[in-house]
Amino acid sequence: MGGMTSLRLYHGTGPGPITPDGCAVDYYATLTAGGEPELIHAAVPPGAGVLELGAGAGRITRPLLALGHQVVAVDESPEMLAHITGAETVCSPIQTLALPRTFDLVLLMSFVIETADDDLRAAFLRTCRRHVAADGCVILQRKPPEWYDTVQPFERATGDGRTVRMTGISRPGPGLLEATMEYTVGERRWTHTFVSRRLDDDRLERELDQAGLAISRFLDDDREWVRAVPR
Ligand SMILES: C[S@@+](CC[C@H](N)C(=O)[O-])C[C@H]1O[C@@H](n2cnc3c(N)ncnc32)[C@H](O)[C@@H]1O
Description:
Elements: E1 10-13, H1 25-28, H2 36-42, E2 50-53, H3 61-66, E3 71-75, H4 78-81, E4 88-91, E5 103-108, H5 118-131, E6 132-141, H6 145-150, E7 154-157, E8 162-173, E9 176-185, E10 188-197, H7 201-210, E11 213-218, E12 225-230
Parallel strand pairs: 2-3, 2-5, 3-4, 5-6
Antiparallel strand pairs: 1-10, 6-12, 7-8, 8-9, 9-10, 11-12
The protein binds S-adenosylmethionine.
S-adenosylmethionine binds at residues 19, 21, 23, 28, 31, 54-56, 59-60, 75-77, 80, 93-95, 109-110, 112.
């Protein structure tokens, strides 16, 4: 982080437990997947074993299980993991995870890779490399770099008593973006403030390379979903 050490990287408010990275457990427990599991499923062999890093309350775990994958779900929040059934769960920080086995797929989605803590991100990628089988792959989800340049505050009502707002967008340093997400479900309201690092293709490629990984392809036209393999 260099000169950014005084910047608070994550902060969450609202009812129920909040994870160290500011996510509201009770909010994530209400969410369902929106096509991500099918995208992931199509990029790996049928029945591929999955290590899901930052699994949260199992929004993606559940459909991956239903698609025939065995999943080991990792999160540092026991309250998040308590919502997961049908998968092995491991309560651990991603950066120190050292399981005695490898997986066909290591999944690190939900923009967790975009932490503004550069050392932490390097450790996340080393964890991916440690746990991916020689013929396996790593799938990462990052916001496309263009998103960082163009994102505007917004408010979206979903019609079922939910709203999502993005406010307070600022750029506290080169390649960094700070913003607050506000989520309401009925009477409940949560906020999640975070600082993210813009990861363009060159930077991502360099950081993957340092971890012993190489991009094999993007899974979508926006280049949000990145498939990488061991070098
Ligand atoms: C934004 S939520 C996404 C959860 C889930 N992937 C989804 O899409 O619904 C991020 C999750 O990653 C977990 N997480 C973030 N940083 C972590 C770390 N360093 N070690 C372990 N878990 C972490 C949080 O506890 C949280 O449950």
